[in-house]
Amino acid sequence: MTSPDYQRIADAIKFIATQPEQQPTLDEVAEHLDTSVFDIKRLFTRWCQISPKTYLQTINHQRAQKLLAAAKPLPEVKSQSGLIGGLTTFGHRVQIEGWLPSFYKSGPGYDLTIQYSVHDSPFGEMFVAQTPRGICQVTFSNGLPLIAFVSNLQRLLPEAKLLRTEPEPIAVFESIFSRNKPIDKTLNLHLFALPTHTNVWRILLATDPGTLTDHIAIAKAVGRRKSTLATHNAITSNPIAFFIPSHRAVDPEGHVGDYRWGVTRKHTMHAWECATSTV
Predict the structure, then answer these.
(1) Spatial CA neighbour of 149 closest among 160, 158, 137, 135
(2) Residue 65 near residue 151, CB atoms below 8 Å
(3) 47, 67, 15, 11: which is closest to 247 by C-alpha?
(4) CATH of 84-246 given 3.30.160.70, 3.90.1300.10, 2.60.40.1120, 3.40.50.300
(5) pLDDT tens for each residue of 106-160
(6) Could you identify which of 11, 51, 79, 153 might form a hypothetical disulfide with 195, taking C-beta atoms 3.0 to 4.6 angstroms apart as the criterion?
(7) pLDDT tens-digit map of 33-74
């Protein structure tokens, strides 16, 4: 899962994104990174297993509009209590469990231990928190110290006990990052959220890698046609980075929009997903 190349990839993506009208050549990208075209080709191939020419074709505005036009209809989602199954992410089963009322009885997180650890990924360092029932948070450091994320989690669940652990491999994550065939494991998520937010995240899980959707289409799918702002807020508050794919949601015109973990990372995630797509 370790990806020491991510920062250089992110620098290249950021440079490309500043020139939306005409993508730079490989020579220009190499000059920006103060390296050679040969090294750029080797960097991209090592990181995402394809050539940089193919990779760079996946992150322009015209292609985003084409993907939106080709998007399949989103399924309608109704509120559901208890365990929510029948979901997938990158071909792996996902099960969502909400928080029981007892967690609020004496304050959010009462009598709950949350273990957290730091993991490497193709998109930089990940902070992962999990309860005995499943993963409750996946976020990216963005260069901030670990204590910042511990403090945020403690503010969300002030009565919970937080315990740092050594980063044990997470089988589903490793399978996805290595692009292997999906394994027979379920990704269990324990999410602290209103049903309206959970419904939006379920819609995101219904999208396929390398595709895009928009906020209006998602609002319609969850029965909130007049609440696109609330839908947008649910997308941006997604607590499970990448694996609940909020990076696939753009504005209706195909512009990348904002992203909780940075627009450059959003570009990078989408390009990593659809690098081998022919759409």
Answers:
(1) 137
(2) no
(3) 67
(4) 3.30.160.70
(5) 778 878 899 999 998 989 889 999 999 999 999 997 778 888 999 999 998 898 9
(6) 79
(7) 899 988 988 888 888 777 776 766 666 777 888 888 888 889
